[in-house]
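Backbone-to-sequence.
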């Protein structure tokens, strides 16, 4: 057997437990072969437990482990690092628990916080850096650690309560949809809730980089004076939070 074929069959058996693949392996009849498969699965279980500690506590061990086992069967690792393995767990949760958007959002929050922690560094912008810029042509860059998602439930409140070891509220739908905003400030990953308009403005800025575009968006929703005032207030807030890391102006 060529090494390439041996590696292919071993991986196939490791991931799927396929009997035909096992039969082609030289050690197919060795009881010790199952040690590799048990270790493979244990590593993936451990990865998901480490990535979603609050989700695990929220769901309960049995329900969480059930989802993990289903996920391992459907999503073998595809990256060189286990850090990436947790990325698709949300898809498994949506399939297994379609009527629990609070769990989907809590999973997103935990994944986003972990991802933000290892994102590239970027020094936050200071208000003084804007003084010499033309605001009409101003372009802004946001921190590489920024993560955004729409919020339909109170998952952010649940996360904050559980993180503080407090009693988490019951799952509930928000009266008005909003956004989850995640980023890293220094060495701490942060989560805050944003209303629908702020979330849309922040997402537009992340995609287009134009401050004038944000002003236009908000003016369309709130009227010109109120929209421009809201844009200025949001920019000050984002700079204060360390979300803005670069600014320039175009002619």
């Amino acid at each position: 057997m060529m090494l390439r074929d041996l590696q292919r069959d071993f991986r196939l058996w490791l991931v799927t437990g396929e009997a035909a693949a096992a039969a082609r392996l030289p050690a197919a009849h060795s009881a010790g072969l199952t040690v590799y498969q048990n270790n493979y699965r244990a590593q993936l279980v451990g990865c998901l437990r480490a990535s979603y500690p609050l989700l695990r506590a929220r769901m309960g061990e049995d329900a969480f482990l059930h989802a993990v086992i289903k996920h391992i069967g459907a999503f073998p690792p595809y990256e060189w690092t286990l850090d990436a393995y947790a990325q698709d767990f949300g898809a498994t949760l949506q399939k297994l628990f379609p009527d629990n958007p609070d769990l989907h959002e809590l999973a997103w929050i935990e994944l986003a916080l972990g991802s933000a922690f290892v994102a590239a560094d970027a020094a936050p912008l200071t208000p003084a850096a804007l003084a010499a810029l033309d605001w009409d042509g101003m372009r802004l860059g946001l921190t590489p650690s920024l993560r955004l998602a729409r919020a339909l439930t109170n998952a952010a409140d649940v996360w904050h309560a559980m993180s503080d070891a407090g009693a988490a509220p019951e799952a509930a739908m928000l009266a008005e949809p909003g956004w989850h905003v995640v980023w890293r400030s220094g060495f701490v990953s942060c989560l805050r809730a944003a209303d629908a308009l702020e979330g849309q403005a922040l997402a537009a800025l992340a995609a287009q980089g134009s401050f004038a575009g944000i002003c236009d968006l908000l003016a369309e929703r709130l009227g010109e004076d109120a929209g421009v005032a809201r844009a200025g207030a949001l920019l000050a807030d984002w700079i204060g939070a360390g979300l803005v890391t670069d600014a320039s102006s175009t002619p």
